[in-house]
TrEMBL record:
Organism superkingdom: Bacteria
Keywords associated with the record: Transferase
Gene3D superfamilies reported for this sequence: Crotonobetainyl-coa:carnitine coa-transferase, domain 1, formyl-coa transferase, domain 3
Protein name: Crotonobetainyl-CoA:carnitine CoA-transferase CaiB
SUPFAM superfamilies on file: CoA-transferase family III (CaiB/BaiF)
Length: 375
């Protein structure tokens, strides 16, 4: 697999860091999770299946678990020995905490100059917000994305997808892989300062036209991706469910409105989002209410229109395409896992469903590090 031979020490908790290192484990990296004595919190959060939380199962499969009390000199020394033998170090403490506890970037890269040290935090290692505590929702609020997530009442609502967590995780993965690639040429690692805040701001190139081009906040309901366009919108159906039109290119507008006998609406619905789309929106709202969601899905079959039924999560994971893409995997014990989204032709990843008991690998990992160091 692509990351065979890469060793990762992960001190992060919850979602951004653990998700990133799960992707690495799925593709061959040896991931050693350093848990606090009380354990990774997500071991005990949310629904359980097969004796484990589903959240923990999908962020810690195939990893090793060690427990060290880093306030004790001998156990901090054991951590330092492990650091000397790994390629990647991941932490997600508030800025300054790792330094105070004896495993900050300067100290760790001094021990291992080839180390790629990745810090994931809410607001980064510097700036006026660096010490502010925050999880995903608060970061999205300060990054401005929450203001764009409006319900039908026009008020901000929960985004449900953890945008700040996910973007930081994926960009951190990209940064780690870039640093490992560069290390092949220079022999030196690097230090990564990954802020959830920065990641969230950076993922808005399609939504910052008003901000960067007109020096104002966007009028959310008039922006195409937030409901301003008739063909990039959500519509209720006869049975109280919903369908989505998800592509506003002229050919899709023309294909649907002509099939529905409303050529007169094509021009308005093909132009820029905003008031000109209102007649088409009104027609589509009325039209979609005449059939059930599943009837509309059948009607759209074979038509060249960006259409989708709005599925709940259970439906989405149990559709034939999810099965074909192996995005829902059942292990030998009958437990379900989210599949691997990265698919290589020649060296595909492997989902290892094994879950570590808390501290299960402490002695073995410490002994292995000392063996590698010739002690």
């Amino acid at each position: 697999m692509k990351l065979d031979g890469i060793r990762v020490l992960d001190l992060s908790l919850f979602l951004p860091g653990p998700y990133m290192t799960t992707v690495m484990a799925d593709h061959g990296a040896e991931v050693i999770k350093l848990e606090p004595p009380s354990g990774e919190p997500v071991r005990n959060i949310g629904e359980r299946a097969g004796g484990q939380s589903v959240w923990f199962r999908n962020t810690h499969r195939g990893k090793k678990s060690i427990v060290l009390d880093l306030k004790k000199p001998d156990q901090l020394a054991a951590l330092h020995d492990i650091v000397r033998t790994v390629d990647v170090f991941v932490e997600a403490f508030r800025p300054g905490v790792a330094d105070r506890l004896g495993f900050g970037p300067s100290a760790m890269t001094a021990l291992n100059p080839r180390l790629v040290y990745c810090s994931i935090s809410a607001f980064g290692q510097d700036g006026p917000l660096r010490d502010k505590p925050a999880h995903d929702l608060a970061v999205e609020a300060l990054a401005g994305t929450l203001s764009t997530n409006l319900g039908q009442d026009g008020l901000p609502t929960h985004p449900n997808v953890p945008v700040a967590d996910a973007t930081a995780s994926l960009l951190a993965l990209s940064a780690v892989l870039m640093a490992l690639l560069r290390r092949e040429k220079t022999g030196s690692g690097d230090v990564i300062d990954m802020a959830m805040y920065d990641a969230t701001l950076s993922w808005l190139p399609n939504a910052t036209g008003a901000v960067l081009g007109a020096d104002r906040a966007p009028d959310v309901k008039q922006v195409r991706q937030w409901g301003g366009g008739a063909f990039y919108n959500i519509y209720a159906t006869k049975d109280g469910r919903h369908v989505v039109l998800g592509g506003s290119e002229h050919k899709f507008v023309e294909n649907l409105l002509r099939a529905l006998g409303r050529d007169d609406l094509v021009a308005g619905a093909s132009g820029p989002p905003g008031p000109a789309h209102e007649p088409a929106k009104a027609f589509l709202r009325e039209t979609f209410l005449t059939r059930t969601r599943d009837e509309w899905e059948a009607w759209f079959e074979g038509r060249d229109v960006c259409f989708a039924p709005l599925l709940d999560l259970h439906e989405a994971f149990h559709r034939p395409h999810a099965a074909a893409r192996q995005m829902l995997v059942r292990d030998e014990d009958g437990n379900l896992h989210i599949g691997l989204p990265i698919k290589f032709r020649d060296e595909p990843g492997t989902l290892d469903p094994t879950l570590p008991a808390l501290g299960e690998h402490t002695e073995a990992v410490v002994a292995d590090a000392r063996r590698r160091l010739g002690r």
